[in-house]
Amino acid sequence: MKLNKLLNHVKEYLSKDEDQGPSSGSYKYEDPKTGEIFTFKRRGVYKKNGRILVPTRGAKSQKDKASDN
Fold this sequence. Notes:
The protein is α+β, with helices and mostly antiparallel strands and 69 residues long. The protein is 36% helix and 20% strand.
């Protein structure tokens, strides 16, 4: 009985977490050394090329960054 209750709480928590994500359903992370932007479907800690990626908000692509200068 306790296990079922726990599982229901976990399912409820995960469904709320998905509902609160961005409307596009993606999370953007930036490589702090290269500035390269990576897109993932889930939040989390991601590594590329041995570096931890930094979460960004409203991240621009490399082309957008070049046009701003």
